[in-house]
Design the sequence.
């Protein structure tokens, strides 16, 4: 954790330096507001680079948010390999390996780990350790700060999904979709999911009372949602009341949307409604996106209120 704190501490400090120069140079006359947006964007892009550097310098963060889905896919793929294919039709066709079945759920879980879990813990720690208070006393805009966070999450999530899919193809010979329409569907579900989880991570960062409690508060919530949302357990195996409860939260819909991309069409019959319900996937993710945005705007402060 010391290495993690050192790496992340460098990012806010450097972001402050990058933001201060544009702010000073733009304050020379009445038209100074015209230069603020480029300055904010430049500071945000610089923050992205620093956040990425700090992220990959912390082995524990890389493992638990970047490589953890790969590890879990490997465990499930090997553990259930002997049970044969799942979803085989009566005529003996249409079955897929357990690794292929778990792949979409692990992609959804990886998005949640990178966006919600990692960001909530990271911001809570920076707030508790005083970095946000220091940033609040500088000309840096909160927009630049969050551009850095969001950019890091987007880039690491893309890399994580690429590594996860490559691992599934190379190790377990998982066949990927060949229809371009399915990859277009994957793109909008992925982008909507990562924005939603990012905003929820910002909102959830207000919950821990200190940096020491951040992990203990956030991780159990994330694990609970993974187990009830069809990531580690087949969603149809859960009792109806638990399915209804899980359907309130975004991870269930994100995992369902990913299953619609990577699983054969006849697997839709295993969903609670008997179809992929892509319209509901979009509605629930957008609803949680708005909720995360509103909560973030209401609760985020450079300094925690006591």
Sequence:
């Amino acid at each position: 954790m010391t290495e993690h704190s050192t790496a992340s501490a460098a990012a806010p400090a450097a972001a402050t330096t990058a933001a201060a120069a544009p702010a000073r140079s733009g304050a020379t006359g009445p038209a100074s507001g015209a230069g603020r947006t480029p300055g904010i964007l430049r500071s945000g892009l610089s923050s992205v680079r620093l956040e990425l550097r700090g992220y990959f310098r912390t082995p524990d963060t890389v493992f638990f948010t970047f490589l953890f889905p790969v590890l879990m896919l490997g465990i499930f793929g090997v553990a259930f390999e002997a049970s044969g294919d799942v979803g085989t039709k009566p005529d003996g066709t249409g079955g897929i390996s357990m690794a292929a079945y778990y792949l979409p759920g692990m992609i959804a879980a990886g998005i949640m780990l990178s966006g919600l879990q990692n960001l909530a813990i990271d911001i809570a720690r920076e707030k508790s350790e005083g970095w946000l208070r220091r940033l609040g006393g500088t000309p840096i805009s909160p927009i630049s700060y969050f551009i850095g966070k969001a950019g890091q999450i987007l880039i690491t999530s893309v890399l994580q999904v690429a590594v996860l899919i490559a691992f599934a193809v190379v190790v377990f010979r998982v066949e990927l979709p060949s229809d371009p329409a399915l990859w277009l569907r994957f793109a909008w579900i992925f982008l909507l999911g990562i924005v939603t989880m990012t905003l929820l991570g910002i909102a959830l960062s207000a919950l821990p009372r200190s940096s020491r409690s951040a992990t203990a508060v956030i991780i159990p919530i994330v694990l609970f949602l993974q187990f009830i949302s069809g990531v580690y357990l087949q969603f149809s195996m859960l009792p109806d009341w638990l399915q209804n409860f899980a359907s309130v939260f975004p991870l269930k819909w994100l995992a369902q949307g990913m299953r619609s991309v990577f699983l054969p069409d006849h697997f839709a019959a295993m969903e609670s409604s008997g179809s992929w319900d892509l319209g509901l996937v979009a509605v629930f993710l957008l609803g949680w996106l708005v909720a995360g945005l509103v909560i973030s705007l209401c609760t985020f402060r450079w300094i925690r209120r006591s």
Summary: The chain has one domain: 2-12+35-82+93-299. The chain is about 70% helix and 0% strand.
